[in-house]
Write a structure and sequence with these properties.
alpha/beta, 2 domains, 7 helices, 5-stranded mixed beta sheet, about 240 residues
Length: about 240
């Protein structure tokens, strides 16, 4: 993405770019750091001011063979301590009379980001990135229609869910789902149908469980998606 602006607006545009890069850091959950690369100190003033205003620490790196103007890069490291760039923004004033051109590449390589996440987290991807976020376990055939309705509601809310209706014990179903790194399970049986509540289980880690209203479960899952973390508030709640 390229933004043409008056030199006086450049700091504001850089602040916007840095905030977007910080959002990337929050989304991927990796340890990242900023590097400012430049050949001449002149022209770095709006970038340094933007970093200062946001309170972001960064590394300065002088490079004589840099082709563009000052360049901001967001780096992370793999498990072998090798540096990998995730995002970049740079100033290009060539051919621009009385204007500044801010070039931005907010995600340099989606494949690289995914590879770094898999290397560090194994198959336990962040909740928002997990292919299947919720599995609904049907332990009583009477709940099949209800399970389909819940799945449809989750889908409309942007949550990826599947229904497990196989004839197997609940422990077997939960074990299979946990081995597939599915983070959240919902158990539906005769008791849940009668009380119209959901038995929600976190399938990774301590595998906590609680009975919750469907409205609350949907709200919590949406919040987890938006915050990019599975900080699910396990506990019985009712509207």
């Amino acid at each position: 993405m390229h933004t043409v602006c008056h030199p006086g607006q450049l700091e504001k545009e850089i602040i916007s770019s840095l905030q977007f890069m910080q959002q990337i850091v929050t989304m991927v959950g990796l340890d990242c750091h900023f590097v400012l690369t430049y050949s001449k100190t002149k022209g770095t003033e709006p970038i340094v001011a933007a970093f200062s205003q946001l309170g972001i620490s960064f590394e300065k790196k002088k490079c004589s063979d840099i082709r563009s103007g000052p360049r901001i890069e967001l780096y992370t490291r793999d498990l072998r301590a090798r540096k990998w760039p995730l995002a970049a923004a740079w100033i290009d004033n060539k051919g621009q009379k009385g204007a500044s051109l801010l070039c931005q590449s907010m995600i340099l390589s989606c494949e690289r980001v995914l590879a770094l996440l898999l290397e560090r987290l194994g198959n336990n991807l962040p909740f928002w990135l997990t292919p299947e976020q919720v599995r609904i376990f049907v332990v009583d055939p009477q709940c099949s229609l209800w399970a389909a309705e819940i799945k449809d509601r989750l889908t409309r809310a942007g949550i990826r869910a599947k229904v497990d209706t196989q004839m197997a014990s609940l422990s077997t179903k939960i074990y299979e789902a946990s081995q597939q790194n599915i983070p959240v399970g919902i158990v539906l049986g005769e008791r849940e149908l009668k009380k119209q509540i959901l038995n929600v289980r976190l399938l990774q880690g301590w595998q906590q469980s609680a009975e919750m209203d469907c409205d609350v479960v949907v709200e919590e899952l949406i919040r987890c998606n938006q915050s990019y973390k599975l900080n699910f508030d396990i506990g019985y709640k009712k509207h």
